[in-house]
Hints:
The complex is a heterodimer.
Chain A: H1 5-21, H2 28-52, E1 61-69, E2 74-80, H3 84-101, H4 109-128, H5 132-141, H6 143-153, H7 158-162, H8 169-178, H9 186-215, H10 222-228, E3 235-236, E4 239-240, H11 241-254, H12 265-272, H13 275-285, H14 287-300, H15 302-308, H16 310-329, H17 333-353, H18 357-388, H19 404-418, H20 424-437, H21 441-466, H22 483-501, H23 504-522, H24 527-534
Antiparallel strand pairs in A: 1-2, 3-4
Chain B: H1 16-34, H2 40-64, E1 68-70, E2 75-77, H3 79-99, H4 110-129, H5 133-151, H6 158-189, H7 204-221, H8 230-236, H9 239-264, H10 269-291, H11 297-318, H12 321-352, H13 363-366, H14 368-382, H15 388-402, H16 406-431, H17 445-463, H18 466-475, H19 494-499
Antiparallel strand pairs in B: 1-2
Helix pairs in contact in B: 1-2, 1-4, 2-3, 2-4, 3-4, 3-9, 3-12, 3-17, 4-5, 4-9, 5-6, 5-9, 6-7, 6-8, 7-9, 8-9, 8-11, 9-11, 9-12, 10-11, 10-16, 11-12, 11-15, 11-16, 12-14, 12-15, 12-17, 12-18, 14-16, 14-17, 15-17
Amino acid sequence: MGDYALLYILFAPFVGAIALIFVSNRQAMLVRGIAAGSALVSLLASLYLFYAYDHVKGGFQFVQRFEWSRQLGISFHLGVDGIGTPLVLASGILLFAGIFVSWHIKDRMKEFYIWLLILAAATIGVFMSLDLFFLFFFYELSVIPMYLLLGMWGSHTKKYNEMTDPEGLKQRDSVGFIFNFGANSKEYAAMKLVLFLSAFAVAALMGILLIYKYSGLNTFDILVLREQAKLMNIPVLGTTLDKIIWLLIFFGFASIAPLWPLHSWSPVGHAAAPAATSMLHAGVLMKLGHFSIIRVAFEILPETTRELMPIAAVLCMFSMVYGGLVAFYAKDTKYVIGYSSSSHMGYVFLGMAALDYISLTGAVMYMFAHAMATGMLFAMAGWVYDQTHSRDIPSLGGLSNRMPFISGCFVVACMASIGVPGTLNFIAEVMIIVGSWNKYPFQVIVAVVGIVLTLAYLFKMMRGLFYGPMDQKYSHAHDAVAVVDRLPLLIMITVSIGFFFFPMHLYDVVRSGVDPLIAKITRVVPVAALDRESSHVNHETTSPTGATSAPLLAINPAPRTPHAVRGLE
Amino acid sequence: MIFALPMSPSDLLLLLPEILLTSWLCLILIIDFSFPRLPNEQLGYFSIAGLVATLGCLAWFDITGITGSLFANMFVLDRMALYFKMFIAGSTILVILASIDYIHRFKFFRGEYYFLIMMSSLGMMFMASANDLLSVFVALEFSTVGFYVLVAYLREDTASNEAGIKFFILGIFAAGLLAYGISLVYGETGKLVFSDMRAAQATPGLAIGFLLIFGALGFKIGAVPFHSWIPDTYHGSPTPVTAFLSVAPKGAAFAILLRMFFVALATFKPIWTLLLVAVSILSMTYGNIVAIAQKNMKRLLAYSGIAQIGNVLIGLAAGTKMGSDAMLFYLLTYLFANLGAFAIIIAVSEAIGSEEIDDYSGLGRRSPFLAFSMLIFLLSLAGVPPLAGFIGKLYIFVAAMKEGLYMLITVGLINIVISMYYYLIVVKKMYISEPHDPSPLKVSGPIKVVIYVCLAGTLAVGVYPQPVTDWVVSAILMFSNLADPTASLPVLPAVILFGG
């Protein structure tokens, strides 16, 4: 273990996928066993990583570096900081849970697990890449498995199935394609997802290539670029180059996040995807966007980030409210959860936009918390769909009689998603709200309204699915009884609740990644760090203007020197 | 020009690969005549043996560094020529392997088929070494004559005949352009060897002459606006010939283009960059947009091939050593992906007798191996990691970025997204649509070998490209002894920045 932890986490799913090629689909248990085994290796290694990460030292740890292409200046450079570590852990947990959620897939199970493992490995790869080339490499690699997973094992929406027109299949498709009133085929969803993400990915690639050219360093290494790249004040097309690069990178990666005007692929994709894919998609794939913005734009262009990040503060309001409103009126369970995810991603953008120690820490913790909450919701929506073959909320109801365990877990998942005290989401939401209050009070008000909206649509869905009268045609529906069916939900619930009671390690780890970043961007050193040096007072002031934070934040951060830029140690 | 050539027997060593191939050609004809009852497969394997020997000889030259020039610089054997010769010999081997199970479709002259393929291959090897406008003309026509016959080899198929006629008429026209261009250039400069033209003055005659030569070579690589023969010819030809036509001649023609632009016209770089930028943008955009509407796999790959050539031209337009390295790299990734895709088309058409995209429905259930390989090849053509095509595209974009060709890169990046669409349409048919007929497909041994080789190449180069990049960088070393083309120039006109 030890130094090679990142390699185990990254390559265990790949090795599992390759091993699966040589297994026959008839040996179902062997197929599941290999998939679960490789996911378990990855999960255990990421747990080790999370707890072995030294937050006092901070910086990039577990660094691996291999020369990959001299001519292009690319090295296979892996390493995690406080921001990547929890996200790697979240991917590990969701992959492991996703294997069990899709335990009962019948059709081409082996292929399903192969693509699921590749998808998870690619996302994990982004979280640990320290080379722009490999960051993009893994980012693109995660898109194609999504196409196949959606297309081969996904499902059409209800309206699409209702538009039965045996002879005019073509017309049905074209209606779905052009107007897309929640009526689309899985093929449409898959193609839309891939084209949308690729189109914005090439914008990000253009930004990366511009950084490569204008830094003149002949390297894609983020650690070198952030120290040495001089990209400021180069006039281009009536503005400056760094702004163009920043916008390309921001919007290129924000499309997967998904920020408001770029979100339309996401709910469509969620609705079409099989349960485990939705979990990974909403749980970690969307966080690739935030993470890549932090890793590329924040690290390499800190000055421009300070200047242009208000864009995100404006757009995130639309994300929160629009997503919440659509989720309230949507009738398809997966649409509700999908739009709720894109609404909740607005909170992360708010936390990032405020460029504050507490709010950015909250944003990263929220990514982790949201991965668990939305993972649970999608897993259970998938279970309900498998049992009833329906995702239409009005036609469902009263299922708590048939599936008490699922309905119980669903209540917990809703609570987590809303951010009720007792779940990690609460801590993260409070940190975002407190941290960004000074800079963006209006957005914070909108965010609170968004929480109320979340409450409304999740309770509406919960009532629609599990309470009220039950249609007799669902009387054959089963609860999750077997261990393999309950295990993924229990894992995610435990993590979500457990980190509420023991958040300190998570907080310290994230904070150790956030501190140098914010110090570099805002050029303001947290007051606590200065205090400690002089008088050892153990309280922390959060923002440049000196507002004291909520009691939650009266905690003992480990001593660190945020303004000293941490490199490879 | 003096033809008193100082030549020693040891100089003939440089011609050893060609001599080997020529004698093998004759041997094949003799064997074919003498043993009419010999099974065709054996003749195929025999010709492969000859090509493998040639390839080995080329590799030996490359490793030991045997280079030089012959016939007053008409024929050069530098490491770039060796690279392209290996490219051509390698693709010929794969094409012949892929033909072995296809050849039963020819009613007559099965033995001559191998002869003609190898003859074209020989002509292209001379193209890779041609350093003189006369040898360019002779080698180019020599290789094309073989193709005229090969394209129309399915004698009873009207599509094949149409393809042959179309290719022949347009090919002859291109040959005429080439000859006229050469005569103009010779008239203006009095020189035929590329390296002697460096001091040439820019005159209208010279410009027209080189434009005509570029047109003829553009016909060969199938760049817009010289592409009109491609779809019908690709569609009508026997599939192995299409595969051959889509890869090898492009490599050979790019060798000539590299020598022409980088050696003869090095001082006019700002001007030809504009030309290449225009041709590249047109090729990529036209190829990709028209490919969306295709219903036939061969036509789809024909149009996608036009777009791929547009990508290669980005590297040429960059006009630097890195750009040409990237071109060589890209062509290799294109070889693996394109030949692999055509091998699958052959396998599928042997099994179900159709090349329509619609008949690929449910291939993922009928033959997981073929479907998975096709997925890999198409995604490599589209440029998706971790496949070779992604690295190739990135290499080319980085090279062009260093030269500041922003518009070209932007168009190239947008085209990646467009191309993703039609490649995924095929993927959708193969994996998502249900099969019309669920019976499993059988794949013959030789085709499997071709597919395995191309798969290994696509994956290995994509995962670890360092050996290949080292190889292409050393192959282009010959240009590094030239002065930097831009260094001797006066200040570049502002139009180049705008146009790029």
